[in-house]
Amino acid sequence: MADKTTGEILLALKARAGDPSLEEIARAGGWAGKSSIQVFFNRAYDRPLGGSVALKLVKALEGRGVPPIQADDITRLAAVAPVANASAPFEFEGASLYRMPRDLPVYGAALGAEQLVDGEAVELTTLNKSEVIERRERPPILNGKKDVYALYVQGSSMDPAFDDGDLIVVQKAGSVSVGDFVVVYLRPKDESDDGETATSVLIKRLVRRTAQYVELRQYQPDITFRIARDDVLRIDKALRLGDLLQ
């Protein structure tokens, strides 16, 4: 088991449980839908589970299969013992052990349908902001930053900047500049939707922004494309470590 990723172990447990659908697992665990857990059931996902995620998966899978799945089969995949409202210790160079509040919301995300631009496939992400799938530790460098959230990257369109399954931190309506990585909210077709629930977003690099269009770049395939400004609801800034240290 030691040489398997977290995602591979979860997929094996899913098969052992009779191969229920991700939608079924999500509902049984108390999530709104499969977009909340899709990232964890990816063979490439190789990070510890958050405590709250582990507890929900225990609720969904414990007792299923032959032999029956035990709670420990899942909780051992967590970074720390899954205790409600727990804070995990982190070691910083030149600093003593610091306990960071676990209050950074992570929203559910899933790979959306591709959009063709000049014959090239542009990767979309469906972001579900109506549900927080877990909360992660907030580093001190994020203290005081408002409207900050996180999401797991879906797909490989921004590789090598962001790998599939990477956790990125995003600042709502942050000041963005050319060259920044951004999360572009596309205006919903239903004008009654304010984009605060499930919505389509583009996780790309900002090339140019004018009154008429927003020009973006994705890396895989390498393409620069434009989105009409009227089709853009808002642009959030994806924060890298360098951004957070400023």
Automatic annotation (TrEMBL):
<dbReference type="InterPro" id="IPR036286">
    <property type="entry name" value="LexA/Signal_pep-like_sf"/>
</dbReference>
<dbReference type="GO" id="GO:0016020">
    <property type="term" value="C:membrane"/>
</dbReference>
<keyword id="KW-0378">Hydrolase</keyword>
<dbReference type="InterPro" id="IPR039418">
    <property type="entry name" value="LexA-like"/>
</dbReference>
<dbReference type="InterPro" id="IPR015927">
    <property type="entry name" value="Peptidase_S24_S26A/B/C"/>
</dbReference>
<dbReference type="InterPro" id="IPR019756">
    <property type="entry name" value="Pept_S26A_signal_pept_1_Ser-AS"/>
</dbReference>
<keyword id="KW-0645">Protease</keyword>
<dbReference type="GO" id="GO:0006508">
    <property type="term" value="P:proteolysis"/>
</dbReference>
<dbReference type="Pfam" id="PF00717">
    <property type="entry name" value="Peptidase_S24"/>
</dbReference>
<dbReference type="GO" id="GO:0004252">
    <property type="term" value="F:serine-type endopeptidase activity"/>
</dbReference>
<feature type="domain" description="Peptidase S24/S26A/S26B/S26C">
    <location>
        <begin position="140"/>
        <end position="221"/>
    </location>
</feature>
<protein>
    <recommendedName>
        <fullName>Peptidase S24/S26A/S26B/S26C domain-containing protein</fullName>
    </recommendedName>
</protein>
